[in-house]
Amino acid sequence: MILAQPEMAATVTQYCTEHSTDVSPEMKEVWDWTCGEFEDADKMSSPLQGTTMKFLASWAGAKRAWYEATKQTQAEIITLELDPKMIAATRTTIAKYNLGDRVTVIEGPAQQSVEKLTGMFDIIFVDANKDGYLGYVKVVLDQKLLSPKGLIMCDNVFARGMTISTESNPQLPDKVRSYWTECGKALQKFNTYVKNDPRVDVVLLPVYDGVTLIKWKQ
Ligand SMILES: C[S@@+](CC[C@H](N)C(=O)[O-])C[C@H]1O[C@@H](n2cnc3c(N)ncnc32)[C@H](O)[C@@H]1O
Known about the structure:
- By secondary structure, this protein is α/β, with parallel strands linked by helices.
- The chain is globular, with a radius of gyration of 17 Å.
- Helix 5 packs parallel to helix 6.
- The chain has one domain: Rossmann fold (3-Layer(aba) Sandwich).
- The protein has seven helices and seven strands.
- Strand 4, helix 6 (about 135-140) and strand 5 form a beta-alpha-beta unit.
- S-adenosylmethionine (SAM) binds near residues 45, 82, 83, 127 and 132.
């Protein structure tokens, strides 16, 4: 697996961060606050990932995004969340940065929420429960929730390497190994499903923990 050694991953991430457009002070502030509030803050997208999403949303001129977008485009953002603690943190952040006029939190299991969404989205970021990815993306495509030039980004499709092989990451700590092994099984089905869906073009990038990009076939 690429950058399986945590020290090397940290060094490379730091180098990439230093050579990318600066993270906004607000994003840095949210990052620091979340790290202090949540034991599992490592699930959060890093500042470099946040910068990547801002970059893409800005480039695409996104007007409507599921989960992430940018100040520059003033996009409407819909975010889906199940966990009450995360919902409370999200609402606190929305209020703190006066984003209530364009960010909507939909509470509850994402599958039910996605099925009720209407309209189209320019950017969709899929990063919730890994055994839900297939269902989420299938609904997005079936219900045409992705705009004609839109982009779906799916994070963690390597499942720390377990999707590729359960032998691929000897450094994965034992306490999370069975969790990521189960995720890997689900994501293997997901990766195969999207690759074989004739409606879309797919590229699986060997960055971070594996990121799949999906767009409509032109
Ligand atoms: C990896 S974290 C998301 C990190 C976030 N996307 C970011 O970029 O910082 C996964 C989130 O999905 C939420 N989640 C897990 N299962 C879910 C479900 N079935 N429906 C909605 N949200 C879910 C978790 O509570 C958690 O907040």
